[in-house]
TrEMBL record:
SUPFAM superfamilies with a match to the protein in the record: Periplasmic binding protein-like II
Native source organism of the sequence: Paraburkholderia steynii
Protein name: Amino acid ABC transporter substrate-binding protein
């Protein structure tokens, strides 16, 4: 749970969802969760002289404005682990479902960062340290500028249920919102989402606090009416994790070991507290001043729920 100290006025979602814990846990996932939580030294260390070629997908053609911090965090982790590595982005554009399928096969890509999700995590090597300290789960709304008065009247979760949101097909955020009784439309095309908001086919598009402004600004010419709604915050436990192919256990162990080390020596927090992508997003969204509507996330794995509190940002 995110701490209930973000500004004033928090609205909780009391609706529950039947959640069955995973019956079969992969031993390697337990190891990575333990390494992430405690910074333990893993047995699966990189061998002397070993070089990792890290291959990750292109999510959005020409507009993947969110990759810089994830890649900077990856670089920090690999250097903290004293690992030799190189990165390469494939030319093929992949939405989330396709990227996870390719990752599972291990033939096209071997690394992806995406939302924590029990179903997606099955069978993959997952580093259970949130990349953005939970900021992906603090969600502001992209709306048409002329719709702000409508959102000024929203005070409760029940009020928000009168609106229709939009998310990408296959995103776990869709299920989280629907579980809370919110109306959500989906599309398989990321670019179509913005056109749906611009064209009044939906009312709002929730985005992570650090995602919203770069997306609006990159679309000033194509969707000039888009704006970031200025007073509401949807909040639930979520963030991006590093997902690694099943056949790349050494790579996953190296990232986990290095990421934990970067936390211990303070270098990750230094990166977080100085990186423009993070700090500009925090400054512009002004999270502490917003009215919070909290949702439960019943789609977390046991490892997600066990992530230590220190890794989450408390505002």
């Amino acid at each position: 749970m995110l701490r209930d100290t973000i500004g004033a006025g928090s609205i909780s979602c009391d609706r529950t969802f039947p959640y069955s814990s995973l019956v079969l846990m992969h031993r390697r996932r337990f190891l990575f969760a333990a390494a992430s939580a405690a910074g333990a030294s893993l047995a699966a260390r990189s061998a002397p002289g070993e070089h990792f070629e890290i291959i990750y997908p292109q999510i959005r053609p020409g507009r993947d404005v969110h990759a810089a911090f994830a890649l900077a965090t990856l670089d920090l982790a690999m250097k903290a682990a004293n690992a030799s590595y190189s990165t390469r982005q494939v030319e093929l554009v992949m939405e989330r479902g396709r990227a996870l399928a390719e990752l599972a096969s291990g033939t096209t890509i071997n690394l992806h960062w995406t939302s924590m999700d029990a179903q997606a995590e099955r069978g993959l090597n997952v580093v259970h340290i949130p990349i953005h300290r939970g900021l992906i789960g603090y969600r502001v709304f992209l709306i048409r500028q002329d719709r702000q008065p409508d959102f000024d009247r929203i005070e409760t979760l029940d009020d928000l249920r009168s609106m229709t949101g939009v998310q990408g097909l296959g995103w776990i955020d869709t299920e989280i919102m629907r579980n809370a009784g919110l109306a959500v439309q989906t599309t398989s095309s990321y670019e179509t989402i913005f056109k749906m908001v611009e064209g009044r086919r939906v009312d709002y598009f929730p985005r992570g606090a650090i995602e919203a402004y770069p997306e609006v600004e990159s679309r000033k010419e194509t969707e000039p009416s888009l704006a970031v709604e200025n007073r509401l915050l949807l909040a639930y436990r979520s963030d991006f994790l590093f997902y690694v192919s099943p056949n790349q256990e050494r790579l996953a162990a190296t990232i986990a070991r290095g990421f934990a080390a970067a936390w211990r020596d303070g270098s990750y927090l230094k990166l977080f507290n100085t990186h423009p992508y993070i700090q500009n997003g925090l400054k512009r969204t002004n999270l502490a001043s917003r009215k919070i509507i909290r949702l439960d996330n019943p789609f977390l794995s046991d490892e997600d729920r066990a992530i230590p509190d220190m890794y989450w940002l408390h505002l």
